[in-house]
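User: Quick sanity check before I run a bigger batch. Here is a single chain. Can you write out its predicted 3D structure?
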Amino acid sequence: MCLKAGFRVAVVAAFTAFCVAGMARDAAAQNAAANLPGDFDFYVLALSWSPGFCDTIGIGRAHAQCASGAHLGFVVHGLWPQYVRGFPLDCEGIHSPSRLALDTVRGLYPDEGLARFEWRKHGTCSGKSPTDYFADVRKAREAIVIPPQFRDAGKTQNWTPLDIQRAFIAANPRLRPGMMAVECTQGEFEEVRICFSKDLHNFVACPEVSRHFCYTQQITVAPMR
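Assistant: Done. Predicted structure follows.
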């Protein structure tokens, strides 16, 4: 009787181990498929507000962007392939973009190092060459009209996150709530994230992205400097 019970326990344990191993293999296969270049649902254009970024997470590490006299406002943080839920990262492809490709986005990113990093982390998942991906970065950035209140912001302002969203919607009539997010860090305005279709012809709804909204009642918008 004890022998039979022990045998049953061994069989159950072996079956459980087999199932766990199978689930692990399935998860690994799904992860590999999830990072297939070109297989994504939409783009997110992240525009960093340099003064807020430099006051918070950029302190001491983004020297070109945060140097005194740089007078930078919105700069491209990244153009990110995105799934409806989640996003791909570090896809297979060319590891380092050429000098010619990098030259096409000069003035969009705050420095070349960020452009290189963004290509490796996100651009490789676009399914495009570095030159074509960076052309998409420029196209997305040029599709956004910056609200006048942020074009030459020379003094500290206080905004609600909702009013920042409304300012972007007023400047970009096809943009709607649910197609963007306002990001803040330590009570300061830090970034906007705007969702585009894969062909960059339209803004699109992106519930997972827009859910990560800054819900602080009031945030500081630091001046350009």
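The radius of gyration is 22 Å.

User: Great, the batch can go ahead then.
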